[in-house]
Write a structure and sequence with these properties.
The chain folds into two domains: about 80 residues, Orthogonal Bundle (Arc Repressor Mutant, subunit A); about 55 residues, Dna Ligase, domain 1. Helix content is about 50%, strand content about 15%. It has six helices and five strands; from the N terminus they run ααααββββαβα. It has a three-stranded mixed beta sheet with strand order 4-3-5, with no helix packed on it. The protein has a two-stranded antiparallel ribbon with strand order 1-2. The protein is globular, with a radius of gyration of 17 Å.
């Protein structure tokens, strides 16, 4: 995964190219999410944000998250109701998430053939996909090694 500074530079460039306002609050929310290896819940973000911006309220965080998702900078982890930074926001793509149930590590995959097969089958059935979330829950190698040593 990219380091936080690289990710922030990519986000700045992308927002500038699209004419999207990358406000200080949006920037800070992305920094907080990018600084974690797992997902962050909205209220965890709010707790952190209120220590810096006393006026921050839930709508502040949710609007920032909505913007970041719309820009492709953040993904929502549906099963955890949490958010994770996209390691490659510079291009539009389908993705799949590997989520470790022990340590919370989230890794993003890009299996284009999976996306293509799903899109084809949906079209064949006359279905218009608006959003796709593929999450695989399990154990990462490090956690499995720790379990095996116990």
């Amino acid at each position: 995964m990219n380091d936080t500074r690289t990710l922030m530079r990519q986000a700045e460039r992308q927002c500038e190219q699209r004419g999207a306002r990358f406000t200080p609050i949006r920037r800070r929310v992305l920094e907080m999410i990018a600084a974690t290896t797992g997902g962050l819940k909205a209220y965890d973000l709010l707790d952190q944000l209120t220590t810096e911006h006393a006026a921050a309220r839930p709508p502040t965080v949710y609007r920032a998250l909505e913007f970041l998702i719309d820009q492709g900078l953040v993904h929502r982890i549906e099963s955890l109701n949490a958010y994770v930074a996209c390691p490659c926001p510079e291009h539009v793509h389908g993705f799949q998430l590997l989520i470790c149930k022990q340590c919370g590590l989230v890794e993003e995959l890009h299996l284009d053939d999976v996306d293509a097969q799903l899109a084809l089958r949906a079209r064949e059935l006359g279905f218009r996909v608006e959003r796709q979330t593929i999450e695989l829950l399990g154990s990462c190698e490090a956690c499995r090694a720790g379990i095996a040593q116990s």
